[in-house]
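Q: what sequence does this backbone want?
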């Protein structure tokens, strides 16, 4: 018996008691060396039609898209089409006015100093939270920021702009949009038929979950929910919709070695202090942290009321995938690391 499985079952029981079966919910899977140990679906993907969450329900991954972009970048690096030390400004018109050199490794590690376009978008007067921001608008905001906020490489500051720019860099180098590149190199060969990058958030999509927030404004209807749409038509920092089944199928490919080449997971976890301070947990598209005696690799995402987590323990050969469409559902690293392993004093 794998001890993490018993602990996970206890957490699942608590979650089912907390989240009603006829409300927005979650799905998750625990995978050990390619074998699914536990797979659970609970709650509704669509409240209006009472459609239950299933393995083929499509969720918005939000920032969990970033490791996929990083994987394509590292593929181009391995092929010699890019180098981590390349100054990316000549490739990217949005950075034309930026004076300081910004290297590829700075974008990957969130140490570029480029302002977050989402912060700039929401800071504009007259913007509503459901106004849709496009890729072109994101790039325009990055260009208008005019220069970095600090010298690249001197500190880590998470910015969605970095991965929007990485998607544009891949387009310039590889000659195709991110959606096509992921379909060609990941989704199609890995059997991920229900995964895609969506540039039109309103497009009809089979088996798509909606995300929901509580309607706090109507005290007469304490169990009322509001639809929380994804108001993003940008990609690179997000954009991927996928299913639990597809992410399970993908996991062996993330961890497989191709000849003498290290796995995608190993490549994206590489530590290179040329591009960020030595204590920076965010590597090349994934974060690496210590939890007690365990070293954990993860990335999460959240937008509207969608949230996601991909958590791996390489030493134990374990991968946990969590997807939710319910406001406030816990997909943070600390919560799930504690649920699966002995509580640690702190994550480092």
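A:
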């Amino acid at each position: 018996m794998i001890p993490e499985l018993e602990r996970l079952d206890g957490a699942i029981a608590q979650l089912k008691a907390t989240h009603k079966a006829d409300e927005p919910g979650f799905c998750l899977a625990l995978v050990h060396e390619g074998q699914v140990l536990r797979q659970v679906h609970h709650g509704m993907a669509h409240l209006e039609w009472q459609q239950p969450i299933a393995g083929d329900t499509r969720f918005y991954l939000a920032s969990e898209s970033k490791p996929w972009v990083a994987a394509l970048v590292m593929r181009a690096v391995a092929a010699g089409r890019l180098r981590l030390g390349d100054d990316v400004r000549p490739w990217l018109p949005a950075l034309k006015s930026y004076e300081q050199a910004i290297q590829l490794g700075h974008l990957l590690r969130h140490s570029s100093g480029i302002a977050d376009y989402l912060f700039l978008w929401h800071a504009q007067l007259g913007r509503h939270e459901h106004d849709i921001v496009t890729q072109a608008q994101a790039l325009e905001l990055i260009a208008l920021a005019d220069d970095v906020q600090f010298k690249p490489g001197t500190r880590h500051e998470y910015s969605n702009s970095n991965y929007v720019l990485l998607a544009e860099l891949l387009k310039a180098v590889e000659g195709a949009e991110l959606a096509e590149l992921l379909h060609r190199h990941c989704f199609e060969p890995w059997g991920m038929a229900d995964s895609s990058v969506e540039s039109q958030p309103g497009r009809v999509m089979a088996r798509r979950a909606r995300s929901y927030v509580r309607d706090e404004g109507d005290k007469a209807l304490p169990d009322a929910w509001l639809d929380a749409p994804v108001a993003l038509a940008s990609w690179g920092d997000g954009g991927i919709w996928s299913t639990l089944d597809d992410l399970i199928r993908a996991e062996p490919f993330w961890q497989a070695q191709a000849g003498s080449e290290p796995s995608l997971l190993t490549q994206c976890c590489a530590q290179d202090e040329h591009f960020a301070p030595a204590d920076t947990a965010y590597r090349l598209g994934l974060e690496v942290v210590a939890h007690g005696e365990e070293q954990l690799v993860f990335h999460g995402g959240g937008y509207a009321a969608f949230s996601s987590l991909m958590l791996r323990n390489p030493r134990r050969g374990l991968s946990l995938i969590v997807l939710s469409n319910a406001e406030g559902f816990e997909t943070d690293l600390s919560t799930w690391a504690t649920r699966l392993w002995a509580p640690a004093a702190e994550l480092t």
